[in-house]
Amino acid sequence: MDISEEANDKKTAEQSLFSTVVSDEELEEARRKSAFKQLFGSRRIFLPPAEKRQQRPELQRNVIVQSKAAEHYRSGTEAMGRRQYEKAAVCFTKALNLQPEQTQLYVSRAEAYLQLCDFQSAAASYKRAWILQPGAFSRRLAFIYYLQGQCLFDGGLFLEALEAFSKAAEVKPDCRVYQVRSLACLTAAGRHSDCLKLLDGWMTSGSPTAELHVLRARLHKRLQQTSRCHQDVTAALALDPSCLAARVLLQQLREASEEARLEAVDRTVSGRLPEALCMINVALESSPQDARLYLFRGILYRRLKDFTAAIEDLVQAAELSDEEEEDQEEVRGQGKEAVRREAELQLVLTYNDFAVQCFGRGLYSEAALLLNKAIEEEKSRPGLYLNRGDCFFKQGDWCFALADYQQAEEMLAPDDPAVRLRLAVVHNTLGRLCFQDGRFQEAADMFSAAIRYNPAVGRYYESRSKAFRKLMSWTSARQDFICMLVLDPDSQEVPPMLMSLFPGFSVSDVLSSPKGEEIRAQLMDSIQEWRSSSDPQRLSGKLQQMNVTDEDAEGHPKELKLCLNQEDLQITVKSLLQVEGTLQSLVRDRPALHQSGPDRAINHLPPSTSRASNTRGGNSCLEPTRQK
Predict the structure, then answer these.
(1) Residue 580's pLDDT is what?
(2) DSSP state letter for 48
């Protein structure tokens, strides 16, 4: 290959590798134009002046865009007229791409989407138009959200429907329809608590109506909040007494309450008191203004020994029975007056039972205060006076105790054993106090009263014998000493009294004498007569009729418990008779009588009618036979 061919091949390769290689001719032409430009500056010097140039219409971009957008809008409008909604939506979208600030284009496209049931796209277009013109299309936008929510609700998509209805309510907060539909979604989804919160917000922010109260009552009923349901029903009837829905709900609540009350009665009769209390609480939630239910629950609390709660319920029952309510008690077969009387009676019994409990714990002052309240409510029950007398007796207020016992004696049978034993002990105690004070005649009268109420206690005769001896009434003193020998021959006081009253005689001499046998026979007769007249079996029927085991129609006991029963009273009597130093300490440290007890005057005690004549004599009155 020669040199010329090799040069051509090299040039061809360079041109194929570097496509922008400039030839020498082109370089020369460029140098020439540059020199020409440097010489003349610009080609405009060869043009005519501006005013002599021909004017050409300038093509403006805005005109083209507007015309094209208008063309798309016309096409979309024509498509809407022919019900070609998809094509219309496309045309309006093209127009919006050219002119995105035109509000009418968004509105037109939203209507096209609405006809296609594309609620989400329609809402988005209307929302854009609402932003461009605030407040102009809020009603239409809210309606679209409402349609979307209703379709979702019909399809069972309750949470999605709730979101749509919530958006509609945000756009038009003054339209209650959208909020109600939100409630419907929450209810259908089972979110009753959220539904109740939403309804509470409405009623707090605005004026509640009877319909809203009924709606909230139904929600409370669904959530088992029966008491609040009753409150809303009552409020609805207060706003609109003719509201049929509220009356229906009220009737349903009353029926549920009566059913629960009957269940409580059955459980009470079978002795299941805690279960009965639960059922009566259910009944009260459905009918919190029924005085009978408070009465029932108060009785249950009393039997369960929850006295504070019992007192509150019984007071509530009495107050409700006095209020002017509907004739619901008469409808149920029990008058308000009967409920009030029963509540007052049970309140008295509750005060008494509470006092008995305090008495058993040694709280005698508190027990007396409770019995004062019971007596204020009911002054015709002798058991209350007996119990208060026991409280005073335990506190050493003998005169107050005697006054209450005497009051009970006037109201009960005179041969009632509970009263007679108490009166005997109190008279003996007061007699000992009088004896220690040197008032022997009063002491003898007190001992005589004690013997009249209980002639079977030898210590009473011993005390009266000593009092007669101080009064120099030897015949009466010797007679009481013989009674003491018969009843209590092992007493430590027998030897000194025998030496003082029958010097030179033995116990057998005194008892075997004609006078001694006569006194023994008289004593046995009087004791037998006292025991027969004080037989608890004979008096049980009368006592039960008065204050022991009366029950009402539903089996609620009306018994009046005593602080000291028969056995406790006997133990108390024996302990008092066996303790000698107690009375001496009481004489030294006895406080002055005060008016902490019953508000009644303490009169002088009446003299005993069985006091023996004060005659002076020697041993000849008994004529004992000496033992050989």
Answers:
(1) 39
(2) P
> By the 8 A CB rule, do 372 and 351 touch?
no
| Local structure of 611: helix, strand or coil | coil
Handedness of CA 176, 178, 181, 182 (dihedral sign): negative
Could you give the C-alpha distances from 346 to 136, 219, 238, in angstroms and in order? 71, 38, 33
State the amino acid at position 70 in one-letter form. A
Domain 62-136, CATH number (from 3.30.200.20, 1.25.40.10, 3.20.20.70, 1.20.1280.170):
1.25.40.10
* β-pair partners for 551: 557
Question: Which one-letter amino acid corresponds to residue 486?
Answer: V
How much is the pLDDT for 226? 81
Write down the residue that tokens 């054993």 correspond to.
417
DSSP tag of 624: P
3-state helix, strand, coil in the chain (%, to 5): 75, 0, 25
DSSP assignment of 498-549 equals HHHHSTT--HHHHHHSHHHHHHHHHHHHHHHHHHHHT-HHHHHHHHIIIIIS
Which pLDDT value is given to residue 311?
Answer: 92
CA distance to 430, 434, 496, per residue, from 471 (Å): 18, 13, 18
pTM (2 decimals)?
A: 0.62
Among candidates 512, 527, 516, 536, which has minimal Cα distance to 628? 512
Tens digit of pLDDT for each residue in 538-560? 444 333 333 323 344 344 445 57
133-139 contacts: CB < 8 A, separation 24 or more? 133/103, 136/103, 137/107, 138/171, 138/172, 139/172
Write b or e for each residue in 142-160: b if 16 or more Cβ atoms lie within 10 A of its Cβ, otherwise e. bbbbbbbbbebbeeebbeb
Q: What is the pLDDT of residues 349-359, one digit of tens each?
A: 999 999 998 98
DSSP letters for 250-302:
HHHHHHHHHHHHHHHHHHHHTT-HHHHHHHHHHHHHH-TT-HHHHHHHHHHHH
Encoding tokens for residue 493? 């006081």
The predicted structure's pLDDT at residue 309: 92
Report CA-CA distances (Å) from 571 to 395, 422, 425, 463, 577: 17, 12, 12, 20, 10
Output the average pLDDT for the chain.
75
User: Distances from the Cα of 391 to the Cαs of 242, 355, 416, 564, in angstroms?
Assistant: 58, 9, 20, 10
Please give the pLDDT value at position 445. Answer: 92
pLDDT of residue 227: 82
Distances (CA, A) of 439 to 117, 120, 468, 480, 586: 114, 110, 11, 19, 16
Q: How many Å apart are CA 32 and CA 13, to the nearest integer?
A: 29
* Rounded-to-integer distance, Cα 146 and Cα 156, Å: 15
The pLDDT, as a whole number, for residue 279 is 92
Low-confidence ranges of the chain (pLDDT < 70): 1-24, 27, 30-59, 206, 323-334, 413-414, 534-559, 564-628
**Distance from C-alpha of 502 to C-alpha of 500, rounded to nearest angstrom:** 6
3-state SS assignment for residue 24: helix
CB-based contacts of 422: which residues, under 8 Å, 6+ apart? 386, 389, 390, 393, 401, 405, 564, 569
Looking at residue 605, its pLDDT comes to: 35
Reported for 6-10, long-range contacts at CB under 8 A and 24+ positions apart, including other chains, are none
Q: DSSP code of 621?
A: G
Cα separation, 103 vs 133, in Å, equals 8
